[in-house]
Hints:
The chain has 9 helices and 27 strands. The chain is of the alpha/beta class. Strand 6 and strand 7 form a beta hairpin. Helix 1 packs parallel to helix 8 and helix 1 crosses helix 9. The structure holds flavin-adenine dinucleotide and nicotinamide-adenine-dinucleotide (NAD).
Amino acid sequence: MLVNKPKIVILGAGYAGLTTVARLQKSISASEAEIILINKNDYHYETTWLHEASVGTLHHDRARYEIASVIKKNKVTFIKDDVVEIKKDEQKVILANSEVAYDYLVVAIGAVPETFGIKGLNEYAFMITNINGARKIREHIESQFAKYHDKDKKDPYITIVVGGAGFTGIEFLGELVNRVPELCKEYDVDPANVKILCVEAAPTVLPGFDEELVDYAVKLLKKKGVEFHIGTAIKECTETGIIVSKGEETEEIPAGTVIWAAGVRGNPIVENGGIETTRGRVKVDKDLRAPGESNIFVIGDSSLVINEENNRPYPPTAQIAMQQADTCAKNVKALLRGEQHLAAFKPDIKGSVCSLGEHDAIGLVFGKKLMGTPASLMKKVIDNRALFMVGGAPLVVKKGKFNIL
Ligand code: FAD
Ligand code: NAD
């Protein structure tokens, strides 16, 4: 047994980080290296389920599980702490309560909301970021319903604005339209007084996605009460609502809740660590190392991979994050064993599915369009597969989605 074993340090226990750990703990022996996983919580959450927890259609405990339940304790040391700084010249990571040296570093601390410097968003808007963020959104919406009185119809409490009609905004709306009737019943609110607005700067909902599928989603959401403001950009968020612009015109829209779901950028800790980034994301080499760094891998939403077919970055997704984790784990193992050849990451994009509430969805999977129940079933299969890839069948049994009707 080596006295001073090489240290593989993984930052972040999201899809990218936890999948890397799952692969490494299977493929290397305890005597070969020490694997250290650092995450700010002692649980992993399914980021892809946070829209459900935010609305309250899924309890937030259903969307998370203990990290300890999926790691092999003889191989992996887990540290619950906040990563504060990466000091690459000293090969160490500064945490809120200690510091950790590394021989190999895997950076997988995800993304943060992109606010484009828009005034008031950080102060007044809610963002779908993590379990606590989701809890705050759910509680806030409920409190707005509790404060509302039908007699004053101008009351903006139950006007909810969603900024951004990308996948996150649309999935959130899909849950919200199903939850609102329950909230109305619970808080004696006339459903006719609830306003749900979706404000999207681009000329279409889900820009770039298949038109027929977008049309299906828009019709369904409109039928359930969503008012779309397309080609309209949020310019400011205030204590009482938002200011939008459409062409030359500016309008103030009062709202009790503003959800900002207009994109993400890489976690700033990465660029603050002196690693070159674009919108906070590291344009990684083919082997997933940061350019010029021999022992630092960057994966998941902190990284940027170019699609050579159109020379544009792949959208950051859990799908890519988990695939990168496979290649990253192989490459860390190769370096550890002194091998010269590292594998090149090749994304295998199987498609995308956008949920529209628990029992509806749209999707393009293996080039095939899906709508309604088949798409919704596919989404559950994808959700369960992500659990399986980290924790096998026991985790699927514990946390999986089986409510198919
Ligand atoms: P994350 O999964 O976000 O994990 C990052 C981890 O790092 C977290 O555990 C976090 O706590 C930890 N962390 C962050 N900062 C620190 C710090 N300073 N110190 C310590 N730990 C830290 N993608 C899909 O492919 N399919 C989908 O259906 C889908 N649905 C989505 C739905 C929603 C509502 C959202 C918001 C996103 C969705 N995505 C989807 C995108 C997907 O969730 C992300 O691309 C994916 O989570 C990226 O994985 P990651 O491991 O890089 O980051
Ligand atoms: P996004 O970048 O995909 O969409 C953001 C939307 O906000 C865009 O349509 C943009 O035009 C709009 N926008 C930007 N500024 C605006 C403004 N000032 N006012 C109004 N609208 C504005 O971001 P997202 O939806 O948060 O998704 C982030 C990533 O996560 C993407 O890669 C996405 O593919 C992925 N994701 C995937 C799924 C899924 O596969 N089911 C679900 C959620 C998120």
